[in-house]
Amino acid sequence: MKEQVSVFKSGNELAAQAAIDCNYDVMGYYPISPSTEIAQLIDIQKSNGKTNIHLIPADGEHSSAGICYGAALTGARVFNATSANGLSYMLEQLPVFSGSMTPMVMDLVTRTVSGPLNIHCEHTDLYSTISLGWILMCASTPQSVYDFNIMGLKLAEKISMPLMVSYDGYITSHQKHDTFVFGDSNDVRNFLGKKEHPENKYIDNNKRPLTIGAHMLPEHKFNNSVLVNQALENCLDEFVSIANEYEQLTGRKYDVIETYNVEGATESIIGINSVAELTKDAIDQVDSKVGLIKPNFLRPFPTKAITEVLKNNPSIKTIKVLDRADNPGYDYGLLAMHINDIVASNKLDIEVKSIIFGLGGKEIFIEDLVDIINNNEFSNTKTYYGITHSQGEVSNIIKNNYEYKPEEFKVGGFDYNFNEETNSLEVKTPPLRNLMKKPKRITSGHSACPGCGIFPGVETFLKGIEGDVVVLNQTGCAYVVSANYPNSSHKGHYIHNLFQNGASTLSGMVDAIFKLKDDGEINFSDDTTFVMLSGDGGFDIGMGAAIGTALRNHNLIMLEYDNEGYMNTGAQLSYATPLGHRTSTSNVGSKIKGKTFNHKDTVQIMAGTNMPYLFTGVDAFPQDLVKKAAKAQWYAKNVGTVYGKILITCPLNWKSKEEEGSTILEKAVNCNFFPLYEIENGKTRLTYDPNELGKNIEVEEWLSMMYKSKHMLEPENKELLQEFKDVVDDRFKRLKAKNDHPFL
User: Fold this and answer.
1) DSSP 8-state class, residue 609
2) Contact residues for 520 (Cβ-Cβ < 8 A; gap 6+)
3) Residue-wise DSSP of 535-585
4) The Cα angle at residue 698 between residues 692 and 701, in degrees rounded to 5
């Protein structure tokens, strides 16, 4: 037996520890709660030189799966972690792994798949994968998360198939337990052995050219599917062998299923993941003879092992199957369907009860499970345990309670004149004091952090918009803190859709409204402006939808609030994070000093779509931002799609002082990091030049105000600082050249 060390850690911490012990070559990832912590923890070790895992931050889960597939095709050991909508977004990539019989390991930290958006534990994500050809393991404790990740990699490579380790989000993922890990990671690597590179399997040399992923005609695809199934048929037997070897090293025993108290039981509970552990405690509290059967695999499903238990314990007459996900349109939950099939095919004298619980992360406690055990009134079709509202009482639509008068948002004083000679719009705006008469469109009562710059920035922009506004918000901080059912902080129409699809969704809504209005089917005011609000990295994962919307030239504004990271999921790096800046996935350590590549210039990328109007702004320069908002409204109504980027502060994750938000923004502009400019019909114009006004400051003065960037000022980081200053200087010089030469 190899040395085992006692640690007090959570499931996510142990997943990261297992990945480091396994010494993966590559991890492609994209942040999504509650799995993001895994990449963060690995990155901390990476920044201090304690792991060689090559981390690749993707622009979305679909891309992260592509990164992993490309890496796995070389024979590299590859790892990923995701949850819920992230899994759904990469779903089409998963059969690519299994169809090509390419091994990798991915941790699925289970979470409700939207909508409505909910970030808590459910198994809708896990259940969506059952027909995709992946091995699906189910870990019920932090200890089994660690062990399954290690054994799972060996199993995946043994049968050359991809494998997923699932465990429950915010339960197993975040709860700390007393656990054991290998004292020496070399013992894990010896257990795994060196990754084999069979001939004609991987793109690992230049001597044997391979074609991978060729289109298959029906007869070949049929045979391919059979091969995948045959590989999975051998999976459980191989696992037993691997588990026996692992037991010799650790003293921890695993099988394809686990049973508890089944001898002599008249009733059995069947459930996967964390509820199974809670069920053991409930069983210990009841007088009736109740047992537990816990599958450690969902695919391949351990039919044979469960059948043997039921046949060997004929006293079991009732099975209550716990599903933490619904199976809409069918009388049984998914797990209950499997058990029903076993009972029916073996003609067992057992009654199966299907119980749906825990939807949306609704808590279940030991006393609830005791109640389930003692309740003999469950029907033979599925029962929802835990309903607190009558059917139909809860929907995802909120009728806003505010007295909404669109005319209040028209204060007048705006003058628009399009100059045909200069091909530009001349706008006069009323004094700011007059605009203060315009009510806020976002009410108090939202739950934004102290000092959050989102709503001051957005509200300042909206001061320049006259009349009614319809806002669509992609997932991010602005949405999460302002629309929490059954409350909304928005006075006007407000819609949410997922991270990657905001622009597309609003474009469909805008065109449908115009079509229905033209057909006389609805009455919708002409005095309406449509705004898509995005931030927190939304122009990474949502870039494709935004570019497509711009190219189609819909009558709407895309407004990005740039807080330089994925702040709603825990301050991970985004492509907007500047070089060298600290985030939870670009840590500062002894070997790596923050983000290792430059931030994306989204305005210039969007300019490539030939949009009529683009701009940057900050609320520290309110007159400039209001005027640009007014121009944006005119162009959106009369010409087509507009894009704007406003820099906003995030004191919580920038580690800056709440009261210094405006000063930080002002310094970002004056050091030329965030220039204020517009691109109007292809011509670039600086609307504020700190150099000409004598207000230019050194970049260091801005960096010093935020803990996330202060380390760049340390003497040992002078090369990093200079590289960042060169980028800022180069980008501003190019912008200045475009300002001076309109045809650039």
Assistant:
1) T
2) none
3) ETTHHHHTHHHHHHHHHHT-S-EEEEEE-SSBGGGTSB--TTSPTT--BTT
4) 130
- Which of helix, strand or coil describes residue 315? coil
Domain limit, last residue, from 335, 356, 384 = 384
CATH code (residue 83): 3.40.50.970
Q: What is the pLDDT of residue 245?
A: 98
User: How far is the first Cα of the chain from the last one, in angstroms, to the nearest whole number?
Assistant: 70
Task: Let me know: does 534 contact 567? Beta carbons within 8 Å.
Answer: no
How many Å apart are CA 186 and CA 191, to the nearest integer?
8
Query: 88 and 185 share a domain?
Result: yes
Cα distance between residue 581 and residue 567, in whole Å: 14
Residue 717 lies in a domain: no
Query: pTM of the predicted model, to two decimals?
Result: 0.94
- Joined together, the tokens standing for residue 480 give 């999460």
In terms of domains, do 314 and 237 share one? no
Output the domain CATH number for residue 272. Answer: 3.40.50.920
Contacts of 405 (CB under 8 A, 6+ apart): none
What's the number of domains the chain is made of?
3
Residue 76 in domain = yes
- 488 and 370 within one domain: no
* Domain boundary, last residue among 327, 355, 384: 384
DSSP secondary structure code for residue 197 in this structure: -
Distance CA(364)–CA(320), nearest Å, equals: 15
Contact 1, 179 (CB under 8 A): no
DSSP assignments along 436-497, one per residue: TTSPPSB-TT--PPTT-SHHHHHHHHHHT--SEEEEEEESSHHHHTTEETTEE-BSS-EEEE
Instruction: Report yes or no: 503 and 451 within 8 Å, Cβ to Cβ.
Output: no
Residues 480 and 337 in one domain: no
Answer whether 676's CB lies under 8 Å from 686's CB: yes
pLDDT of 575-603, one tens digit each? 999 999 999 999 999 999 999 999 999 99
List of E strands, 61-157: 78-82, 105-110, 135-138
Co-location of 132 and 231 in the same domain: yes
Give 484 or 40, the one with higher predicted confidence: 40
Residues 6+ apart with CB under 8 A from 266: 288, 289, 290, 315, 316, 317, 318
Q: What is the pLDDT of residues 44-101, one digit of tens each?
A: 999 999 999 999 999 999 999 999 999 999 999 999 999 999 999 999 999 999 999 9
CB burial of 341-374 (b: ≥16 within 10 Å; e: otherwise) equals ebbeeeebebebbbbbbbbebbebeeebbbebbe
**Spatial strand order in the sheet of 163-168:** 54-57, 26-29, 78-82, 105-110, 163-168, 135-138, 297-299
What is the band of 191 on the pLDDT scale with cuts at 50, 70, 90? very high
Q: Is-contact 539 453, C-beta < 8 A?
A: no
Using N-to-C axis directions, what is the helix angle for 235-250 and 142-159, rounded to 10°?
Answer: 130
Indicate if the alpha-carbon torsion angle 616, 618, 619, 624 is positive or negative: negative
Spatial separation of the C-alpha atoms in residues 328 and 434, rounded to whole Å: 54
Rg of the chain taking only CA atoms, in angstroms: 29
**Are 267 and 226 members of one domain?**
no
Q: What φ, ψ does residue 487 adopt, rounded to 5°?
A: -115, 150
Query: What is the residue range of 279's domain?
Result: 257-384
**Which pLDDT does position 497 carry in this prediction?**
93
CA distances from 202 to 195, 198, 349 (A): 12, 8, 50
Which residue, chain included where needed, has tokens 């229905």? Answer: 516
- What is the rounded CA–CA span in Å between residue 95 and residue 104? 13
Domain assignment of residue 708, yes or no: no
Mean pLDDT (the chain, rounded): 95
Q: Say if CB 5 and CB 182 are below 8 A apart.
A: yes
